[in-house]
Write a structure and sequence with these properties.
Chain lengths: ~350, ~500
């Protein structure tokens, strides 16, 4: 199970977190009260050119200096603060959420065409795989992630997400089987500007992980969702594919369908499958992925998990359940159920 | 000093109550075990090889066979095989020849790996009701693809190399005309054509009667260059350079002169009756860059229209060698494990040289991944694939597809007697004697091979569905879906699998 929801406002008009809190709580049937989370884009307009590196520290006196030292090696910390939290009866504070606003030094990755992103990716992989007691759980610009172990409404109140505004929100209500209680295991997962919420299990994880690790990514979260973020980073940012093409690589049409396509289209689809076979994701899943410009929702090739989309004005909604969308926006129209593997994409204009 | 005769290996018994003196056993046994004297069948068990032909053909089930009816004094070190090898060599002073695969009792890794299945949190997929994709492309793949836009139309800028398209990841490995009969090759060729997969010629050339099936045949270029000319190269769907084979790593091929009949001699382009002993190395390959030149020469000769495979025996350093091959323009690397079969190999090589395919594939796959080039070449595993579970396991360890050899022969009747090098195969498979070859009917044998591969393909679909996977590429290298049962930690590290329960 698990319930997911995403909303994007194409004209970048902002929403506060109250709406998505209510929507996600509507899907408590799909969770177990052991994990929930939110991501918001457009959260830090005054610091939007800095990478907002969010870290869970087990304690501040031991591990924080180590992370600070690592960050300082690779760039400048412009500002840092404890992420404000507000005690909730149902949430035990396992970690101390902290955020650094960080500017990497591009000269330190001289061979890269995207040196700043590569510095940050390197830092995420390094901290998460080698510094015990510290976990970087968000690393993009102008975006924040809020997650913890608990019901969606408690997690929302713990961070008071209604105090944040943004033009794109993701939410996830978790029914964990793998790493219950661990905050790092809650969604959304984030790397750079990529955030992922995921309902399901990836049976091809072993193949996907080995593929992505051969490109230098390190899977350190003990769960299958993080590979989705890394795969999008590889396919879209590093290989320059469109979001739609990336979805066609991860959940491609069947060979029988490709054989029926007009020749030009068949050639393209065949090439995608040949080049990105190890990126193909199998197993039941519904996923919403976002970056700063867009949001895309899609399911596995035989749609073993639900996904619904709807629109209202400039806003596109994607969720596990229509009821959740209607809680957030009673006026929603064009409610449709995308077909297996078909991407639903929303983009900001301008 | 006289050594004397060694004890019987097999004893044949005839139940005279049952026997009706039809004489089929006499007719069928090319080794001369049976004769009729007076009113009963008499036997000379000493020449029996346990091929089971007489037993299969006796209409009254009157024939029995006992293995090692006479015991040596038992000893864990000085086994009967060891003792008999010594007697043999003391008498002849020669290298001992043997057939089939490794006969040493090494543990079988496949049998200590178990597969995974879904329960509750992820549903299994039912192949009877949902699509299940086993289609496999063998050949070079781009590491990334690029598009351009022209008048709103998306154009693929990346050029794809030619690939072989397989409807199932099971191919039939290289068994030459010479090692096996023309009827055997025809049976295999018909089968792969019907199944949408491929077979190899071995280093025996391509007989004219196989031309109709050439689109499903991979032609081999081995160190003897037997049968190789431009006609041969152009007819093949792909070309395979054989550097070595799992049954005898480090040495060339052996075809005893007894099997070189007129037709074999024409197809191989060698004199009739001569032993075809191909050299240990290719005489134009003494380094990896020489191999690269040969790969490119073959591609150039065939206008870059055909994939070129390179086959090596699984040896200690396979991973690094495969990484070198992957950079040579080769489209696929074939790794042949030490259990691979053969028509004839020195026993000391067959039983003692090389490593198991499970470990070799795992280390090659890992090495290619660590160098970021795994998906650019295909990996074909062979040598000791006995059933569909082995196929699933070796793909999960990193192979794209498999070659089977012995299993296909067994489907045609082979009883694994291991006497292929004698050229007297009573099943018409590993022989060139016309009367024996005529026993193998290609229309029957090809149907048996089709049935076998079809059955394995169905089982593979079921195994994948149970694991919640509907596309073979999601099984490939998915070692998370394997667990090691009673494997030692060192091997599990090489295989990159966890123990059961973990």
């Amino acid at each position: 199970m698990c319930g997911i929801i995403g909303v994007i406002d194409r004209s970048r008009r902002t929403m506060n977190g109250a709406g998505i809190r209510a929507a996600l709580s509507q899907m408590d049937e799909r969770g177990s009260g052991e994990g929930a989370g939110y991501a918001v884009y457009g959260a830090f307009p005054d610091l939007k050119d800095y990478y907002a590196i969010h870290v869970f520290f087990d304690n501040l006196h031991e591990t924080k200096p180590v992370v600070e030292e690592e960050l300082s090696k690779w760039g400048t910390i412009e500002h840092q603060e404890a992420v404000p939290t507000y005690e909730q009866a149902n949430i035990r504070k396992m970690h101390i959420p902290w955020r650094f606003f960080f500017r990497p030094d591009p000269h330190l990755m001289p061979r890269s065409t995207t040196p700043e992103d590569d510095v940050v990716t390197h830092l995420v992989m390094k901290v998460n795989s080698s510094i015990p007691g510290a976990l970087i759980y968000a690393s993009g610009k102008d975006l924040a992630v809020f997650k913890a172990s608990g019901w969606p409404e408690d997690v929302a109140d713990f961070y008071r997400i209604q105090d944040y505004t943004g033009y794109l929100w993701l939410g996830h209500n978790r029914y964990p089987t793998n790493t219950p209680g661990w905050w790092g295991g809650a969604h959304p997962f984030n790397l750079l500007n990529w955030s992922v919420v995921h309902n399901g299990e990836i049976t091809s994880y072993g193949t996907n992980r080995r593929y992505i690790e051969s490109y230098g990514y390190r899977c350190s979260m003990f769960t299958d969702t993080e590979v989705v973020a890394y795969l999008f980073d590889l396919l879209v940012r590093r290989h320059g594919l469109s979001m739609e093409t990336a979805v066609h690589a991860l959940a491609p049409p069947f060979w029988d369908e490709i054989d029926q396509m007009p020749e030009k289209q068949a050639v393209i689809n065949r090439a995608i499958r040949l080049a990105y076979g190890p990126a193909l994701m199998n197993g039941p899943f519904a996923i919403v992925v976002a970056n700063r410009e867009s949001m895309v929702g899609f399911t596995d090739r035989i749609k073993l998990r639900p996904l619904v989309s709807g629109e209202c004005g400039d806003r596109l909604f994607i969720s596990s359940e229509e009821a959740a969308i209607r809680t957030m926006e009673p006026e929603v129209g064009k409610v449709t159920m995308p077909r297996a593997g078909e991407p639903v994409v929303g983009r900001v204009v301008g | 000093m006289s050594i004397g005769s060694v004890p019987l290996r097999y004893r044949i018994g005839v139940d005279h109550e049952q026997c009706m003196l039809c004489g089929r056993c006499i007719e069928n046994c090319p080794y001369g075990v049976f004769r009729q004297e007076g009113g009963s069948i008499h036997v000379n068990s000493r020449v029996c090889v346990a091929c089971h032909r007489c037993i299969a053909m006796c209409p009254r089930d009157a024939i029995s066979l006992v293995e090692r009816p006479v015991d040596y004094r038992s000893h864990p070190l000085w086994t009967p095989v060891v003792r008999e090898s010594i007697y043999n060599q003391a008498r002849t002073g020669r290298i001992i020849l043997s057939g089939m695969g490794n006969a040493q009792e090494y543990p079988i890794i496949f049998d200590r790996l178990v597969l995974d299945a879904c329960q509750v949190t992820n549903p299994s997929i039912d192949p009877l009701r949902e699509p299940m994709e086993l289609r496999t492309y063998i050949g070079k793949k781009p590491s990334r693809i690029e598009f351009s836009k022209k008048d709103g139309e998306t154009i693929l800028e990346t050029r794809l190399s030619p690939n072989l398209m397989l409807e199932t990841p099971i191919m039939i490995g290289h068994m030459s005309y010479g090692a096996i009969s023309l009827n055997a090759q025809k049976s295999l060729a018909r089968a792969v054509t019907e199944l949408g997969t491929f077979m190899g010629t071995g280093e025996g050339g391509l007989h004219e009667s196989l031309y109709p099936y050439q689109e499903h045949i991979i032609v081999q270029v081995a160190s003897g260059r037997f049968g190789v000319d431009i006609n041969y190269l152009e007819r093949g769907a792909a070309i395979e350079i054989k550097i070595g084979q799992g049954a005898k790593p480090g040495i060339g091929g052996h075809l005893p002169g007894e099997k070189v009949c007129a037709d074999v001699s024409c197809t191989r382009m060698i004199p009739e009756g001569s032993d075809a002993i191909s050299p240990a190395p290719h005489h134009d390959i003494y380094s990896i860059e020489d191999l690269k030149q040969l790969v490119r020469s073959l591609k150039e000769a065939t206008e870059w229209k055909k994939p070129v495979f390179v086959k090596i025996a699984a040896v200690h350093n396979s991973a690094a060698i495969a990484a070198g091959i992957a950079r040579s323009s080769a489209d696929a690397v074939v790794i042949d494990g030490f259990r691979g079969g053969t028509g004839a190999a020195p026993r000391v090589f067959r039983d003692h040289v090389g490593i198991p395919i499970e470990a070799a594939i795992a280390s090659v796959d890992a090495k290619l991944r660590s160098q970021g080039i795994r998906n650019e070449v295909s990996l074909i595993a062979s040598g000791g694939i006995r059933e569909s579970a082995d196929v699933a396991k070796v793909i999960a360890l990193g192979a794209d597809a498999v070659y089977i050899g012995t299993a296909a022969l067994v489907a045609m009747g082979c009883r694994v007697c291991g006497t292929c090098y004698r050229g007297l195969c009573p099943w018409g498979i590993a022989t060139q004697r016309p009367d024996l070859v005529a026993r193998l009917d290609p229309s029957v044998a090809s149907a048996n091979v089709v049935n076998l591969i079809h059955a394995w393909t169905l089982e593979l679909s079921e195994l994948m569905g149970a694991a919640g996977i509907n596309s073979i590429e999601s099984l490939r290298g998915n070692r998370d879906r394997l667990r090691g049962y009673m494997l030692d930690e060192g091997i599990m590290q090489v295989l990159d699998v966890k123990p059961v329960g973990a």
